[in-house]
Prior knowledge:
The complex is a heterodimer. By secondary structure, chain A is mainly alpha-helical. Chain A has helices at residues 2-44, 49-53, 57-90, 97-103, 112-123, 147-171, 175-183, 188-216, 220-226, 234-243, 248-272, 294-322, 327-332, 334-370, 374-388, 395-406, 409-454, 458-487, 490-495, 503-511, 516-545. Mean pLDDT of chain A is 80; it is low at 1-11 and 277-284. By secondary structure, chain B is an alpha/beta fold. In chain B, 36% of the residues lie in helices and 20% in strands. Chain B has helices spanning 34-37, 43-54, 66-76, 93-98, 147-152, 168-181, 185-193, 203-211, 224-231, 263-272, 275-280, 282-285, 299-302, 315-333; strands spanning 27-33, 57-63, 84-89, 102-103, 124-136, 159-162, 196-200, 217-221, 237-240, 246-256, 288-289, 310-311. In chain B, strands 1, 2, 3, 4, 5, 6, 7, 8, 9, 10, 11 and 12 form a 12-stranded mixed β-sheet that branches. The radius of gyration of chain B is 20 Å and the shape is globular. Chains A and B meet through α5, α9, α10, α16 and α17 of A and α1, β2, α3, β7 and α8 of B.
Amino acid sequence: xxxxxxxxxxxxxxxxxxxxxxxxxxxxxxxxxxxxxxxxxxxxxxxxxxxxxxxxxxxxxxxxxxxxxxxxxxxxxxxxxxxxxxxxxxxxxxxxxxxxxxxxxxxxxxxxxxxxxxxxxxxxxxxxxxxxxxxxxxxxxxxxxxxxxxxxxxxxxxxxxxxxxxxxxxxxxxxxxxxxxxxxxxxxxxxxxxxxxxxxxxxxxxxxxxxxxxxxxxxxxxxxxxxxxxxxxxxxxxxxxxxxxxxxxxxxxxxxxxxxxxxxxxxxxxxxxxxxxxxxxxxxxxxxxxxxxxxxxxxxxxxxxxxxxxxxxxxxxxxxxxxxxxxxxxxxxxxxxxxxxxxxxxxxxxxxxxxxxxxxxxxxxxxxxxxxxxxxxxxxxxxxxxxxxxxxxxxxxxxxxxxxxxxxxxxxxxxxxxxxxxxxxxxxxxxxxxxxxxxxxxxxxxxxxxxxxxxxxxxxxxxxxxxxxxxxxxxxxxxxxxxxxxxxxxxxxxxxxxxxxxxxxxxxxxxxxxxxxxxxxxxxxxxxxxxxxxxxxxxxxxxxxx
Amino acid sequence: xxxxxxxxxxxxxxxxxxxxxxxxxxxxxxxxxxxxxxxxxxxxxxxxxxxxxxxxxxxxxxxxxxxxxxxxxxxxxxxxxxxxxxxxxxxxxxxxxxxxxxxxxxxxxxxxxxxxxxxxxxxxxxxxxxxxxxxxxxxxxxxxxxxxxxxxxxxxxxxxxxxxxxxxxxxxxxxxxxxxxxxxxxxxxxxxxxxxxxxxxxxxxxxxxxxxxxxxxxxxxxxxxxxxxxxxxxxxxxxxxxxxxxxxxxxxxxxxxxxxxxxxxxxxxxxxxxxxxxxxxxxxxxxxxxxxxxxxxxxxxxxxxxxxxxxxxxxxxxxxxxxxxxxxxxxxxxx
Lengths: 546, 335
């Protein structure tokens, strides 16, 4: 009896420490965003007119367009991703599989202008597409400017991301299910309906929400490929309110609209899907016992093939234009090495912070949803989708707010690197959370009771129980966060200056001084670094699973 | 060349500039934009030349571009570390003066070679350039010879322009059209819109699209071809000369209240007018010198378009109307 009580006490203490971790993570994120808003609000108090003036017909049009393009982009990225992920999962060990997955991680890390030029190298007015029969007069091809261009670029960014996340979701399907389905001789369609779709369905609201948020805040891609002011997103309006006008009141009003609209959309998405189940099984990168049928296999090869071409072709164009650069000179420039080192150091620091925060959110969500206390269960939402909403706060808003708070240049120069690291960490968090959660929840559901019984807590528990199981996904989350931070320009553009120069910053700075070939070469370097990092994480993963 | 980093947002580019060091004896702090201090920009050579003359330490602190510079100055106010601010242009100085941060230069500007002349007691020009439509001679055989021809030309020959909401060249085109067409500007934009392939957030993206062959024309500067001719030995890209005249961009430097007590600030202002400073400008900033140089410019500059007349709005007028004119532009371009 005494023992029993002790067990309950232990497990309760365990739960609480996780929630505390989550509360700390939430507080950190809230402080970053809230601080920025406070700074802007303080300076907006002098003149609130901008906030009222923000609500006009123009805002309505901009908001409508933001939602429309983000919705369509999400749909077009997710729908093919489901089938591509399924096809890839069917063959756990085809040659080039890991290279393919590494390739799929690169797009998100590329600066928007690099992607825009890559996409245009194919579909543009001077693109390869004009060499196809039927293009007698390339001048008559108006290019892909407009909604088409936006959608192509957004699918290029997000379809590979969705594939990777959905593969993670499939990996949570227990090995028994595959064995059983093979024994029962299920057809491909039945397997999809009974095994794969439920796994996808659990993950889809989250993945779709993430893609939606990335698309709704898109800015440079939308303006460049959208053809101009017709294609204006809220993000552009926010940017403008802080750039030429420096009107903090308007910036706050617009940011609030963006947050409100996105929250509503993401909540709607989560209602359409079913909430994630708490999977009680191991993560099994899945030996498959049943071979897909002939037609299914052919379709799979076609799907994966075309997805690969779709993703690889613009990147190949980037590589080709990168080779025009004078690498001997570029690699001899101290500025390039400095920028690479700065990028890597910042990205590593962001990734550490990001992984730690994400673990806090993930474990708190788990504890809150299992606490059995309704009040606490409801807070699980905060630790889940709530944490992702930070994605829709434009980095320029965070930067501007903190700048006002810091006041003097001396403090700003101290603050800048920290802010860059913190903002990148927070922006990468939604991705890391998605990578960590399934593995964490599975491990927790398996081990919580055992740990409580054996009184394994704290660091011991992490070292003995969680670390061995989570090592691989932690590495994945870390590297993913690092790749994302590497390519980030939004924050860097705000703070970059002579002493904080990263690779993406250097790319734009070369482009801005006619040195387009240099920029292309540096884009290639950036892409290669990302690819190498993904390879590294893949290698860690494989070593682990041995 | 303030076009750099369009994307680069900015309010904050602040960050590391200034680096917060207290003004030591013999230190001069100059806030400027990034492409000025880049390895290939005028900054390094100017720093060396001035330091040899003054036996002091010249420190540049750079932010993304001219607009970022203005925002920084607005925010820092009188607490600023800057003795001088270098890189605002005529469209921004009305806003800059409201801050009360800048003090009169108190020097003679007779030496200046700015077309149309320059009279301001606070801001000193150090270079200038003209906006222009740059075209690809491989694909454009009959370049437009006026704004009128540009807006009425063949709609399949496309131009990439910049967004005046986010970029200074974008604002330049807006002002040029307004200067030439006045109240008829809306109608002119409606016609030009047919030839616009896309509108980019900044100069870099636009020029990148142009050199990658997406569009046959781009909105840039008359001096852009000089870069290609001198640095790349390539005369494929040329600027079109427009009959109505070209809108001018003048880049300026001014002393702050903090610089008033630093004798080096005045010394640097005088230095910007010397041939030593001006010699460096053309082939690093790709703009025209604002005062005489010691030797003639590279012969490539002789081949550039020489505008028939120079167009420029008064900076007060721009400050007063910018918002309204941008809204007008938006209405047309978002149709």
